[in-house]
Structure formats: structure tokens, C-alpha cells
Design a protein that fits this description.
The chain is α+β, with helices and mostly antiparallel strands and about 1200 residues long. It is built from 44 helices and 42 strands. Helix 3 crosses helix 4, helix 5 crosses helix 6 and helix 40 (about 1070-1090) runs antiparallel to helix 41. Its EC number is 7.6.2.16.
Length: about 1200
């Protein structure tokens, strides 16, 4: 039965959840309603906070197939609960098509392949589904995704578009004709409206949600209790603080929603043209699009309202929303499998991204064949699109687990337990002394509000608010203030490379041509007469994806730099010219006239100018766009007037060399390439080939790129320089000094990334670099990793590759000491990373421990990397500048965006200055905020215990603190101290010492406990010592302890003003003694806990705090040593002898001395004692990465030796175990 009742949806994905079925029970509902009435609505609040309890209290378990409510629980470490109501989608009322066929298909989970007429097969299949007889489909919505009941799977599943399980063949054969109006209407019914809606909640809704926070509910209860006890002033203060806190919170939450709404709604609704089955074109709103619609891309471009695959024509698209690069990308139509002979290939938006137009990206221009429109088939709509998934990840973020907050709740539970003891003690003591029931209830509840201070949330928030303000001053904006504390714990930072560590663009350093299979010397000036006619320059002029947008040349920055370096002109055919021809008009490139030889006689000048274009203009006939999977691009071009066409190719040097005739590649190719990459240059290789004369213009338009890209002649190298930003090395050095690890995550080439890592100091010159090249299982062989050692020192570049690979191993394995000295780093690309994640799970933590360079990483792989690092207990920061970093920026503990575009919406922090110098600043402020939180929490805990103990001692003699005594302590002392002690700015530099991550740490607990014992001890001393004074008696209005006429006058006048005796027994010697001692104790612990170095500026530099403490000390000393009748009357203080006042001053001074010395001792020797105790016990480190580091120190097989292979065991693949095989 239980197996029937629990299902798993989104299996194996990030949002995997367990589903439980429930039906509403009327008797349970009635019982809960009664409970709500009896508890005055408190039960309703409890059920509001706990969805699991709410469902279980009002419903009974039912089969998921027939349930009315589903209870969902995430399967991650947070195990969060959600509930959703089952809804019914009725299909029988619709006038179009066959509802039975539709319901049947949805039940099968194939809504995208709906057919219009019910066949016998469909009618037969329909009998399998009980739900289809009523033509109602059951579904529920969770986090903007609809999950429909699938009778075949016996589970709920979300409705998929054309992005899964559809072959490229069927895209052309079944979907390219478009939909009928009937089919469109049905799909719209299922898929819903094509829009990414971010509803901005009303202020009232947000207010209710905020006010129902457990802390605010507790504050409300406290305020009601204080009002019944006539304690109005502090109640009013707490109400004002809560209102300010709620208003600021509502403002920031609503601002965030509006920001996201504006980003999404900017182009949410546009008018689009779609093709119907009978070839008519219908104009509809983009909100009505469904998967399967054939959309016409307009000539002047548009913002894509959905994800669509291009089947006709070419588009130039700006994908900055997805990639962060404002570089136009050329999208070509999906290869037709009937031509390319890849009929079985499944369409995937990721694999075929060069043919997919993504939602939110801007189509700048289209190019087309005569008479044929540029068409794309809609594959995903709404929240299923790439943009929709990004918005969903922002709307429903995964909670970030942070030890401080877990410990804070644990600490509060301890305070609640202490309050419980006081509560029971108060009740028993009051009953024994025959106190009235009403007074017992108020007193016993009051002890809870004393122990768990309602001002705690406001006090804890103060430090974060101040830190946020300081961050804003240095140009760092924060949309998630709670993350500031977490940033204080960051011990690993991932950096994007381009635009983050290095400058955005690339500069052309020079070229190195090949002649007679030998490299010539590097050349800097390419724009000269000697080279203008060469194939090398022709390749640079034609092999690119540049286009003119509004007369301005734009495209990939690398292509732009190359084209600008040769000084040629690019001309494109106009729309009118294109329409006249039966083919795409070629883009033409030609050199400037002054570059050509001017040796011809002046008389023939006109003739020469007429002939020049025929010789020196090159038309680009066909373009094969750059593919990151192939790491190359190529073009077919023809010099006007030539009979044969030319093929030009450029790309990654290793790839280009492998596609060239071996005899054309220089023998020292690898060495030359290695020299450049080691120096951090980005190297691109060029190749050329004359095509056969039989390849006509029309044949070229349909030829496969593999036919063109082979048997080429190697022409040489282009060397590009990606300069480091000026501040990069210094910032990374600061982070290394502070023991913060740095990792590079880039989409760039591996060797370039390693080189940049060396240049910026991420990898030190003496460190080893091990490249992990993982290969997936193929042809029955298991997955394997080949380990290569990159050359370590630049000085070793002259030695052979074999020698340099053999050196590090001897060093690394001679002894344990050497292993600790010799540092090594792993480098890998995105493909290898994916293979390792899938097939070598037990190696992942080891690689995370020393992985420094991750090249060619896709956006989702960046997120997976952040998660893998978090899995070994690193606190991970991510610094990036593009929307391609969005997932990683959100998933990291602290994400810092250097761009104010889409990435800033996903990222908790955004820096106005696009420089990584914001990273150390953020960590410094995070550490300061974290230490402030600890100080405030410790202070508030001590405040609770001091006041709790004062009140408990006074309860023992049926007394209490007076209202104005409470008010003086709570308002004048506590609030002033809390809000000023949080003002300490951050320390000016990052230090290697790490702040504690949680409140439950040995030193911290010892500090709090020792201060509690000291304070309780001195309070008890005062309380019991006063009773042993010779002048002591049970106080009454005629008492004359002061023994002076002035005091008699004070007492008599005070007595005359009394209309009735002191009913609450406030005025007595014990009360006065405890009031003075406790008032000083609050200030003493505030000073003791206000830590400065190494994370915050010293306490004396916090001028507001110093001034507040001095003023408070003066005021309390004045009240204690120089009694003023009116003040004493308000505070309900009795007159005590001068001798006792001096005694109290001595008690307070000794208390201050002991407290501050104890706190200093804990700071100085606490850690030493604790580490000594732990070393005796040989405690295992808590953080997984530290434990792993200890293990690897004594592992003889780690790091892997050069030229070895690690293979996944075929039989035990599911647990990810592997073995190392040395290849000889």
C-alpha cells in the first residue's frame, strides 16, 4: 500500500520530489476547526508554518491516482515540504478535434504528437484509462510547472515540448507544415498561455506573509502580555521597531519582484505570424504560441517569445541574455537529415544550439532564400523555455544552508528550555505563596519574554543592515542581505576568465605563417602590400561570422580584431538584390585600394581600377558556423573571376592540424604551439584548400561540412593576446594570503586557461598541473581518464615533453614531506568534467580538492561544479559577468556579478565596477558582519540570562523589577548598545584566520558560559550580602536605612505621595541592589564582547558605541552615587546608605575586571587549549575537504602518475568505483 502511495517525480533531476496522495477528511477538518477556535487561532498559525502537518491534520491517505491533494517533499538535504491541490482539465466541451484521442495521448505523456482523427488503435488504447471516460485530465501546479497524471507511467509527469524524444527527421517531415486551428486550440488548452509571468504580490499579501513570521507572532504575543501588565512604553518601542523592520523588508522584497517582473515583461507580448497547414499565414499574439507552431521570423528581427528551431533561412542573433556576450551569433537552419544522412539523430536544444533561437534573445537580422520565409518551429513555451527556467531558478531558489542560522535556532531552543524552568519555578513559588491566579499567569508568561528577547531579530538584523550600507558605499549592491554573513565564511572563489580576470577583448599580437612546411618568423604588421594577395590574408578576410548591422561591422570580437588587422572592406547584398536572385547573394570582401600595388602607369589608371575588383574581390559562398563541439569554422569562397572555389578553415590548432595533409604541417608545430599557449596567448590555426571545379554554387549550398573540412593545407597561426586586468594578480595574492582558494571556470581553451592561471598567480611557477582527459564509454569499452602532466616551469620549455612529464613524479613520491611541499593542480574541460561526474563519482571529491582550471564549461556545468565543491564542505563564492554564469552565481554561497544585466537579477551581489577587487571587499565586510552577529547574539543571550536571573531572584521574595526599571534597561541600555555595537567597520585587510562558522563552537560557548557564571555569581553576592547588612530590614515606607534627615524628608515626602501601599513589592533593598549591579553588567559584557581585530576595526574606533557606553556609565553612576528624589521615585529605587553604594561600586569594578580578563583569556588561550584537547582525542576534521586532504597525504596512488589511465570498473559502475591501470 505504501509503495502505491509514494511516487517520485523529476527523477534524477535537481528538483526531484516524492509525492504522497491525500483526500480531504470532513471529520478531521471539523476537529481542526474546533482546535483553531479553542487555541485562539494559534493552531491555524502552526498549520500555516508546517504544510506537512496541515495536510496530515485535515486529510487521509489515498491512492495518488484518485487523490484530491498531493504532498510533495524534496529529496535533497533540505527535505522541504509543499502541498498542491489536484485540478481537473475538462476537454469534452471543445468544438475541435477528438477529445478522446487527446486525453489518451496526454495520458501517454505524448501531448506534442497529438493527431486529429481518432483511429481504431486510439479507441482501443483509450479503454486503458478510467479518467478519459469523463474526458478530464488531472493535474497540479508546483513552482510554475504543471504536472499531468500519466496512466502509462502511473505517475505525474510534466508536459514536454518538442525538445525531447523528437528526431530531426520528424521535425522536417511531421512538424514543418504547421498546425491546424483545431490542433492549436487543443495544445493551447494543455500548454496554457505562452508567457513567463512574474506576478508582483500586492502589499497586503506580502504584509500578511511577513507578519505571520514566527518571530513577529512572538513579538505580538509579548506586546499583548506587556499591555495587560501596563508595560506600555517598551511595548510601543518594540511595535515601532517591528514596523520599521517589516516596512524595510516589504520594500526590498517588492522591489526585487518588480525588478524581475520588468526584466521578464519587457518583451513578453508581441504579434507574430504563424504558418497553418494550408499554407495560410495567421497573425496571433505571442502568448498564443504552442509547441509545433511554425513561426515566421520577421525581416527586421524580433525578441524571441519562445524557444524555436530554425528550419528555413539564417538569423543573426544577440544572445547576451544567455551568454553574457553582446556578440551577434549566426544561426543556421537545422540540417535536413535526408541530405546529411543522420536520420536517427534526436533533436536537442543543447546539441543543436547553433540552429535554435532561444527565448529572450534578440533576432537582429534574417537572411533567406527567394520566395521562402525564414521559419522556425516552436519547441518550448512559457516556463519550459531557457529564459523561463532561469526565471524559475530566481523565483524559487534552493535554500542555502548556513551553520550560523541552524545554531541560532538551537541556541533559542536552549533559551526556551531555560525559560521553561523559570516558568515552572514561578508557578510553584507563586502557588506556595498564595498569589492570585491572574498575577501567576502574567508573571510566568513574563519570564518567557524576558528569556527569549523579542528584540532579538531586530538586533541580529542591525549588523547586516550596516554592512549592506557600507557595501553600497563601495559600489556593491545586495538583493539578499542574509548572504552577507555567509560571505564571511567563503574559503573558495570561482572566477570566470574572460571579462572577469582578463580584459573583455583580445588583441592581435601577430601571425606566424608556414612556407614549405616551415614556420617563418612571427610578423606583427599584416596590413601590407606583400601579404594582400596571399591565401593567409584571404582566409582572415573570409573565415568569420561578421555582418553589418545598420552599417556597422559587428560579430565575434576575435573575428573583428582579425578583420580590422588586415584593413579590408566587407559589403553585404541589400534586401532588394537578394530578392532578384535565386540564391543567397554572397557577402563580398575586398582590400582597400591603397593596399594594392600602384606600379601601373597613370594612363592606364581607369582600366586598372575597373579590373581590380574582378581580381581582388572575394565572395563568401557558404559558411559553416563555428561549433564549440568541433572547435572550428569554415567557409567556401571564390575570388571573383576564378573558376575554382576555395575552402578556408580556422579553429583550435590541434583540430586544424588533424584535418590537414600531414606533409603540410611543420615538424615543430607542437613545440611552437606549446610555447605560445604557455605564455598565455590564444592561438588560432588557418588552413586552405582549392575545391574541385565540379563543385558548383548550387552543390556547395547542400554539401556536408565534413566533405569540405579535410585534406587541407596548413597555412600558419594567428596569435591573439588576452590581457590580464591590472588588479587581477594583486587581488588573487590577497586571497591566497588569506588562505582562500581560487578556481578558474571558463568557456575558453584549456591551455590558454592554464597559462592565464599561471600569469595571474592562481598556479604558482613551481606547482604541477595535471590535465585530466576523461573519455566516455565507447564501443563496449568502459569510461576512462588519461592523466597528462603539463610542463611546470617555463624554463623547462626547451626540454622534451617526456622529460618534463617524468620529473614531477619522483618529486611527489619520494617522501611524505615532499608531497606536502609540492603542490599540484588538476585541469580539465567541460566534457571530461561531465564524464567524471557520471562515471567516476568517488574521484570527484579528490579532484575538487585540487581542481584549479575548468575550461570549456557550459553554464549548467558551472552550476554542477559549484555544487560539487559545496558537497565537500567548501563555502563557495562565484564571480562572473554574464547570464551564462547565472546558475552558478545563484547556487554559490556568495555570487558576485560584475554586470548589471540579467546576471545581476540572479546574483545576490552586483558590483558597479567590473573588477574583481570587489571580492576581498565583500569577504571583509562579510567577516565583519558575521563577527557582529556573534557579538550581538552573545550579548543578547547574556542580557536575557542577566535579566532572567535578576527577576528569578526577586520572584523568590515575591518582588520584581519595576516598569521604569525594565524600561531603562531595555530601551536606554540594551537598544542603544545593540544598535551602536554593530557599527564597527570591517578590518582593512583580509587575514588568514577564519571566523567561526557557528555559535556552537567550544570557544564561543565557553565565552558565553563563563560570563553567565560571573554575572550570576556577582548578582547572587549582592542579593545575599545586602541581607546581612546591619541596617537591613524588610523595607517599608518608614524605613530609614540612610540614617539622615534628608533621607527622612525624602521618605516622608515619598510616603505622603503614596495613595496606596506598593502592591507589587517593587521597592526594597534587594531590588535596588540587583538593579544597579545588573545595569552595570549589561555594559560590562557589551565591552567584553565587542571584538575588534582581526575581522573588525577596534572597538575604540566605533565612536557612537564609545560615546553611548560612556554616557550610560555616567548616568548609572550618577543615579547610584548621587540620589535624586524624583529619579529614584520614577525608577522605584529605595534609599540605601552611602557605604553600601561604595560597596556596590567595588562589586561592579571587580565584576568588570573579572569579566574582561576572562574574555581576553578565552580569546588568547581558548583556541590553544581547545586544539590541545582535540589533538589528544585525535578528532576527525568536520569539513570533508580537510578530512580528505589528510587521507590523500598518505595515499601512495595520489596524485596519479603521468601517462596513466584510470578506468571505471564495468561491473560496479553504479557505485562509481574505479581502478588505475598504468599504460606502458
Amino acid at each position: 500500500m505504501d509503495k502505491e502511495e509514494r511516487k517520485t517525480i523529476n527523477q534524477g533531476q535537481e528538483d526531484e520530489m516524492e509525492v504522497y496522495g491525500y483526500n480531504v477528511s470532513r471529520w478531521k477538518l471539523a476537529f481542526v476547526s474546533l482546535g483553531v477556535v479553542c487555541t485562539g487561532g494559534f493552531l491555524l498559525l502552526l498549520l500555516y508554518w508546517m504544510p506537512e502537518w496541515r495536510v496530515k491534520a485535515t486529510c487521509i491517505r489515498a491512492a495518488i491516482k484518485d487523490c484530491e491533494v498531493v504532498l510533495l517533499r524534496t529529496t535533497d538535504e533540505f527535505r522541504m515540504w509543499f502541498c498542491a491541490k489536484i485540478r481537473l482539465l475538462s476537454l469534452e466541451t471543445h468544438p475541435f478535434s477528438s477529445p478522446k484521442s487527446l486525453a489518451n495521448k496526454v495520458s501517454n505523456g505524448h501531448a506534442v504528437h497529438l493527431i486529429e482523427t481518432p483511429t481504431e488503435e486510439n479507441r482501443h488504447e483509450m479503454s486503458k484509462y478510467s479518467q478519459t471516460q469523463s474526458q478530464q485530465i488531472r493535474y497540479f501546479s508546483h513552482h510554475s510547472v504543471k504536472y499531468f497524471w500519466n496512466d502509462t507511467l502511473h505517475n505525474f509527469d510534466f508536459l514536454k515540448g518538442l525538445d525531447e524524444g523528437v528526431s530531426c527527421t520528424s521535425i522536417y517531415e511531421k512538424h514543418s507544415a504547421g498546425l491546424t486551428k483545431g490542433m492549436h486550440a487543443y495544445r493551447k488548452l494543455l500548454y496554457g498561455v505562452n508567457e513567463i509571468t512574474v506576478k508582483v504580490p500586492s502589499v497586503f499579501k506580502l504584509l500578511i506573509k511577513e507578519v505571520l513570521n514566527p518571530f513577529y507572532v512572538f513579538q505580538l504575543c509579548s506586546v499583548i502580555l506587556w499591555c495587560t501588565d501596563e508595560y506600555y512604553y517598551y511595548a510601543l518601542a518594540i511595535v515601532i521597531m517591528s514596523i520599521v523592520s517589516i516596512v524595510s523588508s516589504l520594500y526590498s522584497i517588492r522591489k526585487q519582484y518588480i525588478m524581475l517582473h520588468d526584466m521578464v515583461a519587457a518583451h513578453s507580448t508581441v504579434r507574430v505570424s504563424v504558418c497553418r497547414v494550408n499554407e495560410e499565414i495567421e497573425e496571433i499574439f505571442s502568448t498564443e504560441l504552442v509547441p509545433g507552431d511554425v513561426m515566421v521570423i520577421p525581416l527586421n528581427g524580433t525578441v524571441m517569445p519562445c524557444d524555436a528551431v530554425l528550419i528555413n533561412g539564417t538569423c543573426i542573433v544577440n544572445e547576451s541574455m544567455l551568454t553574457g556576450e553582446s556578440v551577434p551569433v549566426t544561426k543556421t537552419n537545422l540540417p535536413n537529415p535526408s541530405v546529411d544522412m543522420k536520420g536517427n539523430e534526436l533533436y536537442s536544444p543543447e546539441i543543436h544550439k547553433r540552429h535554435t533561437l532561444f527565448c529572450g534573445t534578440t533576432v537582429i537580422q534574417t537572411r533567406f532564400y527567394t520566395g521562402e520565409l525564414v521559419k522556425a518551429i516552436v519547441v518550448r513555451t512559457g516556463f519550459s523555455t531557457s529564459k523561463g527556467q532561469l526565471v524559475r531558478s530566481i523565483l524559487y531558489p534552493k535554500p542555502t544552508d548556513f551553520k550560523l542560522y541552524r545554531d541560532a535556532y538551537l541556541f533559542l531552543l536552549c533559551l526556551v528550555a531555560v525559560a521553561g524552568i523559570g516558568f515552572i519555578y514561578t508557578i510553584i513559588n507563586s502557588i506556595l505563596n498564595k498569589v492570585e491566579v491572574g498575577v501567576i499567569i502574567i508573571k510566568s508568561l513574563d519570564i518567557i519574554t524576558i528569556t527569549v528577547p523579542p528584540a532579538l531579530p531586530a538586533a541580529m538584523t542591525a549588523g547586516i543592515v550596516y554592512a549592506q550600507r557600507r557595501l553600497r558605499k563601495i559600489g556593491i549592491f545586495c538583493i539578499s542581505p542574509q548572504r552577507i554573513n555567509i560571505c564571511g565564511q567563503l574559503n573558495l572563489i570561482c572566477f570566470d576568465k574572460t571579462g572577469t580576470l582578463t580584459e573583455d577583448g583580445l588583441d592581435l599580437w601577430g601571425i606566424q605563417r608556414v612556407e614549405n612546411t616551415r614556420f617563418l618568423l612571427p610578423e606583427e604588421n599584416i596590413c601590407n602590400e606583400m601579404l594582400v594577395k596571399s591565401q593567409f590574408v584571404a582566409c582572415m578576410a573570409t573565415c568569420h561570422s561578421l555582418t553589418k548591422i545598420e552599417g556597422v561591422l559587428s560579430g565575434d570580437p576575435l573575428d573583428l580584431k582579425m578583420f580590422e588587422a588586415i584593413g579590408w572592406i566587407l559589403e553585404e547584398a541589400t534586401e532588394e538584390e537578394t530578392a532578384l536572385h535565386n540564391r543567397i547573394m554572397p557577402t563580398v570582401v575586398r582590400p582597400l585600394k591603397q593596399l594594392l600595388s600602384e606600379s601601373t602607369p597613370a594612363a592606364d589608371q581607369e582600366m586598372e581600377l575597373f579590373e581590380l575588383p574582378a581580381i581582388y574581390e572575394i565572395g563568401i559562398v557558404r559558411q559553416f558556423p563555428f561549433s564549440s563541439a568541433l572547435q572550428r569554422m569554415s567557409v567556401v569562397a571564390r575570388v571573383l573571376g576564378d573558376k575554382k572555389m576555395d575552402a578556408y578553415m580556422k579553429g583550435a590548432p590541434e583540430v586544424i592540424a588533424s584535418l590537414c595533409k600531414p606533409e603540410t604541417v611543420p615538424a615543430d608545430f607542437e613545440k611552437v604551439l606549446e610555447d605560445y599557449t604557455k605564455q598565455g596567448f590564444r592561438v588560432i590555426a588557418l588552413a586552405h584548400r582549392k575545391l574541385e571545379s565540379k563543385l558548383t554554387w548550387h552543390k556547395v549550398q547542400n554539401v556536408n561540412r565534413d566533405t569540405i573540412e579535410n585534406n587541407m593545407s596548413f597555412m600558419g597561426l594567428i596569435i591573439m593576446q588576452n590581457k590580464l586586468k591590472q588588479e587581477t594578480p594583486a587581488v588573487l595574492e590577497d586571497l591566497h594570503k588569506a588562505n582562500i582558494r581560487t578556481v578558474m571556470v571558463t568557456g575558453d581553451n584549456m591551455l590558454t586557461a592554464v597559462s592565464v592561471a599561471r600569469d595571474c598567480g592562481m598556479i604558482l611557477p613551481q606547482d604541477k598541473v595535471i590535465i585530466a582527459e576523461a573519455l566516455p564509454p565507447k564501443d563496449g569499452k568502459v569510461a576512462k581518464i588519461n592523466w597528462h602532466y603539463a610542463d611546470t616551469l617555463t624554463q623547462c620549455s626547451n626540454s622534451s615533453a617526456i622529460d618534463s612529464e617524468a620529473i614531477p613524479i619522483k618529486l611527489a613520491h619520494d617522501s611524505l614531506e615532499d608531497l606536502q611541499v609540492v603542490r599540484y593542480h588538476f585541469a580539465m574541460n567541460g566534457k571530461s568534467f561531465s564524464v567524471i561526474l557520471e562515471h567516476f563519482q568517488d574521484l570527484v571529491p579528490k579532484l575538487m580538492l585540487h581542481g584549479t582550471v575548468f575550461a570549456r564549461m557550459a553554464p549548467d556545468q558551472k552550476t554542477q561544479l559549484v555544487e560539487a565543491l559545496q558537497n565537500v564542505d567548501y563555502y563557495v563564492g562565484m564571480c562572473g559577468d554574464g547570464a551564462n554564469d547565472c546558475g552558478a552565481l545563484k547556487r554559490a554561497h556568495g555570487g558576485i556579478s560584475l554586470s548589471e544585466l540579467e546576471a545581476s537579477v540572479a546574483s545576490p551581489f552586483t558590483s558597479r565596477t567590473p573588477s574583481i577587487s570587489c571580492v576581498p571587499n565583500l569577504i571583509r565586510e562579510g567577516r565583519a558582519a558575521l563577527m557582529t552577529s556573534f557579538c550581538v547574539f552573545k550579548f543578547m543571550a547574556l542580557y536575557s540570562i542577566i535579566q532572567y536571573f535578576s527577576v528569578t531572584l526577586l520572584y523568590s521574595i515575591l518582588s520584581n523589577l519595576g516598569d521604569f526599571q525594565f524600561l531603562f534597561i531595555d530601551l536606554a541600555i540594551i537598544l542603544v548598545v545593540v544598535f551602536t555595537m554593530s557599527l564597527n567597520p570591517a578590518w582593512k585587510e583580509l587575514v588568514a584566520q577564519k571566523p567561526p562558522s557557528g555559535l556552537i563552537s567550544g570557544t564561543l560557548l565557553f565565552s558565553v558560559l563563563s560570563q553567565i557564571i560571573i554575572c550570576v555569581g556577582f548578582q547572587s553576592l549582592g542579593f545575599f550580602w545586602v541581607k546581612h547588612q546591619p541596617w537591613y530590614e524588610m523595607w517599608h515606607p518608614q524605613s530609614d536605612a540612610c540614617n539622615s534627615s534628608s533621607s527622612l524628608n525624602w521618605n516622608s515626602s515619598h510616603f505622603d505621595n503614596e495613595t496606596e501601599p506598593d502592591a507589587y513589592n517593587i521597592e526594597n533593598y534587594e531590588n535596588t541592589t540587583l538593579f544597579f549591579i545588573s545595569s552595570f553588567q549589561y555594559l560590562i559584557v557589551a565591552i567584553a564582547f565587542s571584538k575588534g581585530k582581526p575581522f573588525r576595526q577596534p572597538c575604540y574606533k566605533n565612536y557612537f558605541f564609545v560615546a553611548s557606553v560612556i554616557i550610560l556609565y555616567v548616568v548609572i553612576l550618577f543615579i547610584m552615587l548621587h540620589p535624586v528624589a524624583s529619579i529614584d521615585q520614577v525608577l522605584q529605587i529605595v534609599c540605601i546608605p552611602d557605604q553600601w553604594r561604595i560597596t556596590l561600586l567595588i562589586i561592579v569594578l571587580v565584576n568588570a575586571l573579572v569579566s574582561i580578563m576572562m574574555e581576553e583569556s578565552v580569546d588568547r588561550w581558548g583556541k590553544c587549549c581547545l586544539s590541545w584537547v582535540l589533538s589528544c582525542r585525535k578528532k576527525i576534521p568536520k569539513a570533508k575537504y580537510m578530512y580528505l586532504a589528510q587521507e590523500l597525504l598518505v595515499d601512495p596512488e595520489w596524485p596519479p602518475k603521468p601517462q596513466t589511465t584510470t578506468e571505471a570498473k564495468a561491473f560496479f559502475k553504479e557505485n562509481g568505483s574505479c581502478q588505475i591501470i598504468t599504460i606502458t
